[in-house]
Every structure is written in C-alpha cells, then in structure tokens.
C-alpha cells in the first residue's frame, strides 16, 4: 500500500485525511477557546475587584463559570463537522452538543443571578435590611425556574414527551401538595412575611412567652436569638398565627407608673405631689410628660399615678431615666417629710365598759 492509498484508507466511513483534518481542527478550536478564556480572565477582567462596577463583577463571575468540558465539547463538535457521520452519530452529535450548551447556559444564568443578588443583598443590608429575606427568596425561586427549564430541554432532547410529563407532574403535584401541605403552608407564610413585613431581620419581637431578635427568615422557619443567648426556632405558619409584639417598630415608649404614700400625709402635701412629679420628670431630656393624679384611696395607702413618654425605643435609656426619676422622688419626699407606704394593717382593740 503506497502513501496515497494509505491516506485514502477509510476508517469508520472516513478517510485518514479526513480524520487528520478533523483532529487538527479539534486541537485548533480547543486551543483558541482556551486562550480566549485566559485572555478574558486575566487581561480584561483580572483587575476587577469589589470596587468595580456591578456589570464587570457579574461578567467576571460568569466567565469563571465557563466549564472546561464545554470548551472541549465545542472543539469536538467543530472537528466532527469535517467527518461524514454515520446514521447513529448524525443524530447523536447535535443532540449532545445541544445538551452541553443548555447546561452551560444554565450555569451562566445562575452565576449571573447569584452575583447580582449577592451585590444587591450587600447594598440592602445597609440601606434597608427588611428586603434581604425577599432577595434570598426571589433568588431561590428564579434559580429553581432556570434549572426546571434546563431539565425540560434536556428531557426533550433525549426523546421524552415533555407535554405528557408536564401533565403527569401536574397530577402528581396535587398529590404532593396534599402530602406536604404543612411545608407548603410554611412556604406561603414565608412569602407573607417577606412581602407584608410584620417584622424584619434585626427587629426585637415577643411571641407568646418567648422574646428575641430576628436573625433569619427562611422558607420554613424563622430564627430568633433570645436575650439569654439560645436560638429560638418557629415555623412560619405558627409564627403568623401567633400575636407578635414588634418592639423594632417602636418610636416612643409610654410609661405608666405609680407610688403610694401613707394616710398620715397632710392634705396640703398630697395636693403638691402631682406638681413635684411633673417638675422632676420635666428635667429629663427625651421625655414628654403627660399627667400625674391622686388616683385612689387604696386599702393601706394613698395611690398616685403618673404617665410620661420616653422619646426613644432604647430600653437601657428608659431604665436609666426611670431610675433617675425614682431616686429624685425619693430624695424630694424625704425632704418634704412625705412617707412612702407599704402594706400594713392596723388592729384597734377596745374593751367594753363593765
């Protein structure tokens, strides 16, 4: 066999020349794509950092998710175009190429979405923490839709009747929904929390006998950090069915307090007590005094009630202010000779005349 005959010798329906040309084209395309990816990564996007515009950061992340197998698949497809395919490979090669392209598009789409939501989440943590949970939930749902579409395209390319499959999934979905109604209830409750915003991450809330700061709003549960340090976990459905007291939305605090003085206190001093309380309270900053009254003749004391507003939700500030007011009242009453009452009973004994 001479050299010409050797080059024309057929292997699997293609000459040796065709196989050599196909292999050379495969290597050339693979090398060119690899070089292009390196150039884009190092020279065009190599200087992109956290201070770069969001579009460049997203582009860098997307390029980084370009899989090596995808470049190899493109090179193999390009090389196969120089060969005469057989009956089986004629249908298989385009199908494999389509499947690889669809999977890579799914990777690119989720990479772009993930980077966009990461940047958006970082901005909203500073500007408006209440939207963070919504961003996480929207990201999960969009990724779910993307990969569901990828799966349907893959099944369609593999010859599965997608229309029948979707109809079957609809019937099966009803059965799954009935079996997992508690999970779905928590999911919809999560959506209600995200969009209605009865509380957001960072709010201090009270649920029944439990209280703590909201740490995370998830798809099924919401997690709180209690004052004693442990983590409290509530299902979203139970949480929305409970009465929630949200101290994170408090702008001012109404304080109702009282004091008791003895029945031995003279009437003129009793008349001056409301004015004393007002005078002491109005010395304080971030306080709006409302009223002070001689409220009732109690069983063992004379009861005074006073009300004021603390113009900040800070609990420590409120307790410090209340402490200063109580000390000032104690000192003023001591100077005026007014005695605080405490529960006592007086027993009067009498002897009948003989």
Can you tell me about this structure?
There is one protein chain. Helix content is 57%, strand content 17%. The chain is α+β, with helices and mostly antiparallel strands and 354 residues long. It has 3 domains: 3-160, no CATH class; 184-249, SH3 type barrels, CATH 2.30.30; 253-336, 2-Layer Sandwich (Alpha-Beta Plaits). It has a 5-stranded antiparallel β-sheet. It has a 3-stranded antiparallel β-sheet with strand order 8-10-9, with helices on one face. β5 (221-226) and β6 (231-235) form a beta hairpin. The termini are far apart. The model has no long low-confidence stretch (mean pLDDT 81).
Helix proportion of residues, in percent?
55-70%
Globally, the shape reads elongated
- Which regions contain 5 or more consecutive residues with pLDDT less than 50? none
The total of helices stands at: 11
């Amino acid at each position: 066999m001479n050299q010409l005959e050797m080059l024309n010798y057929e292997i699997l329906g293609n000459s040796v020349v065709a196989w050599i040309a196909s292999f050379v084209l495969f290597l050339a395309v693979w090398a060119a794509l690899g070089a292009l990816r390196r150039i884009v990564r190092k020279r065009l996007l190599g200087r992109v950092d956290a201070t770069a515009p969001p579009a460049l950061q997203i582009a860098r992340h997307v390029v980084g998710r370009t899989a090596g197998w995808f470049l190899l698949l493109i090179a193999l497809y390009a090389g196969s175009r120089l060969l005469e395919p057989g009956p089986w490979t004629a249908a298989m090669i385009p199908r494999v190429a389509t499947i690889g392209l669809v999977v890579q598009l799914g990777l690119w789409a989720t990479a772009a979405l993930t980077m966009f939501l990461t940047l958006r989440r970082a901005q909203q943590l500073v500007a408006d923490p209440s939207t963070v949970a919504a961003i996480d939930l929207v990201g999960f749902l969009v990724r779910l839709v993307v990969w569901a579409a990828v799966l349907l395209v893959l099944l369609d390319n593999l010859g599965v009747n997608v229309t029948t499959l979707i109809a079957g999934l609809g019937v099966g979905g009803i059965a799954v929904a009935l079996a997992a109604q508690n999970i779905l209830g928590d999911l919809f409750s999560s959506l209600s929390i995200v969009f209605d915003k009865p509380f957001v991450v960072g709010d201090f809330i009270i649920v029944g006998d439990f209280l703590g700061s909201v740490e995370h709003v998830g798809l099924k549960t919401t997690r709180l950090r209690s004052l004693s340090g442990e983590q409290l976990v509530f299902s979203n459905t139970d949480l929305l069915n409970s009465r929630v007291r949200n101290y994170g939305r408090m702008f001012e605090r109404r304080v109702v307090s009282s004091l008791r003085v003895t029945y031995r206190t003279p009437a003129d001093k009793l008349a001056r007590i409301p004015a004393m309380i007002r005078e002491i309270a109005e010395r304080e900053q971030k306080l709006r005094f409302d009223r002070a009254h001689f409220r009732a003749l109690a069983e063992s004391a004379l009861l005074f009630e006073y009300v004021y507003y603390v113009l900040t939700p800070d609990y420590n500030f409120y307790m410090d202010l209340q402490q200063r007011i109580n000390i000032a009242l104690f000192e003023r009453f001591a100077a005026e000779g007014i005695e605080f009452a405490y529960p006592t009973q007086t027993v009067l004994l009498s002897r009948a005349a003989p």
